[in-house]
Amino acid sequence: MYYDPIKKTLGQVFNRTPWLRRLFYHLLDLLLLRTWHVHRELRRWAKGRTQEPLNILDAGSGYGQYTYWLSSLSSKWNILAVDVKEEQVADSNAFFRQIGRRNVQFAVQDLVLYQEPNSFDLALSVDVMEHILEDVEVFRNIHASLKDGGMLLISTPSDQGGSDVHDDGETSFIEEHVRDGYNIREIQQKLTTAGFDRVEARYSYGEPGQVSWRLSMKYPILMLGKSRLFFILLPFYYLVVFPFCLLLNWFDARTTHDSGTGLIVKAWK
């Protein structure tokens, strides 16, 4: 199914006031398991750096929730968040101006073409690369845009059932995906080819995470795809499943997985 129309509807609902958008960000932080893993890695990176004037690239910023979270850690960090969707970029710039986060700027850019040599200390790409066919070109551009010693953090589906694809005959749950998921060695090799000196990768979305994803994301998205009337029932649905999802996310984020439907990848220039 196509996910973008549902995302657009959600954005329209929560963009009405800054308070609603902040609430939306907090709900995403709790519900989306990838956020638990990404925040964990970002906290490790940020340790001892919050007083340094660093430059950060949010490569494929979407709603802007990761930029919001990072900008709350330090006012000394300058964050450039880029995305191809003009409407989301405009909405995000308006929101961040409203809340007074002057160290943040959103811009329309195509990651296949965008490059800003030796400019950033950190780049993050969260659930972006599964949407881009020319992935090695993007990795090369980000590598060129990082300063020496800079790090790229990636969250993306794996080939162990990512995008809810488990057999050769199945197709991606999200039709905007150009690939079902990365083989862990494949993405490491592509990043090395793009010029990164060191690459580390681990699985996320182990068994607890996969159950949480179905309850918190897959089933609600399927129902919203059939009828927008489900928006009325959605709060009551989450009242039931939310506590279980939080517990499952907590377990998944604190467990080492031999396999999983997601990957967390770090690469250094």
From TrEMBL:
GO terms for molecular function: S-adenosylmethionine-dependent methyltransferase activity. Keywords: Membrane, Methyltransferase, Transferase, Transmembrane, Transmembrane helix. It holds the Pfam family Methyltransf_31. The chain crosses the membrane at residues 229-251. Coiled coil: none annotated. Residues 54-158 form the Methyltransferase domain. GO terms for biological process: methylation. InterPro entries: Methyltranfer_dom (IPR025714), SAM-dependent_MTases_sf (IPR029063). This is Class I SAM-dependent methyltransferase. It comes from Hymenobacter properus.
